[in-house]
User: Which sequence fits this backbone?
């Protein structure tokens, strides 16, 4: 059974590349969500004026990966304590956000973040927004599978590759063969 998660943790190229490593992931689509403009473009979202975050929509086989597995990977590959930034990317378009598709996802995500804060695994509090998904806008085609198409891109080498390596190392049992 195919399930969907929508997540933003900085540049969507990096988040997309990391999720592509997992067994059970059927598709990852880069896009925009959480804003007020209709049909936003990459340039508009990057301006910070649309309110959207760069996000990925992960379609996965629920019999292979659970939503909690998806969240575990997500919270491992980005810093959920950085407000409106990830690494060199600064602005609300790079915020940490979980956009839920139903009440169950909302409850699971909220409980997951509460547990992270209680565990004290981070020096600062988790600032990840958790809100219902209203509309997902697919990013332009040149942004889809960006890392796979541009593996030598300097930005990807510096920021996507470490996330991929982290997934391969930490989630070896869940990685694609």
Assistant:
């Amino acid at each position: 059974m195919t399930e969907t998660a929508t997540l933003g943790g900085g540049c969507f190229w990096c988040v997309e590349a990391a999720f592509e490593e997992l067994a059970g992931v059927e598709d990852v689509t880069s896009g925009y969500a959480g804003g007020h403009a209709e049909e936003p473009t990459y340039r508009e979202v990057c301006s910070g004026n649309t309110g959207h975050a760069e996000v990925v929509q992960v379609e996965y086989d629920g019999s292979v990966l659970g939503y909690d597995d998806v969240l575990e990977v997500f919270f491992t590959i980005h810093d959920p304590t950085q407000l409106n930034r990830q690494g060199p990317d600064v602005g609300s378009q790079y915020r940490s956000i979980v956009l839920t598709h139903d009440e169950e996802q909302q409850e699971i995500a909220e409980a997951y973040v509460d547990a992270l804060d209680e565990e004290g695994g981070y020096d600062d509090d988790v600032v990840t927004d958790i809100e219902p998904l209203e509309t997902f806008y697919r990013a332009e085609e040149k942004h889809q599978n960006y890392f796979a198409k541009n593996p030598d891109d300097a930005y990807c080498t510096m920021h996507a590759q470490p996330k991929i390596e982290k997934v391969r190392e930490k989630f070896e049992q869940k990685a694609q063969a």
About this structure: The chain has six helices and eight strands. Strands lie at 2-9, 25-33, 53-61, 85-86, 89-90, 96-100, 129-132, 136-138. Residues 1 and 61 are 6 Å apart (CA to CA). The domain at 2-174 is CATH 3.30.1060.10 (Peptide Methionine Sulfoxide Reductase; Chain A).
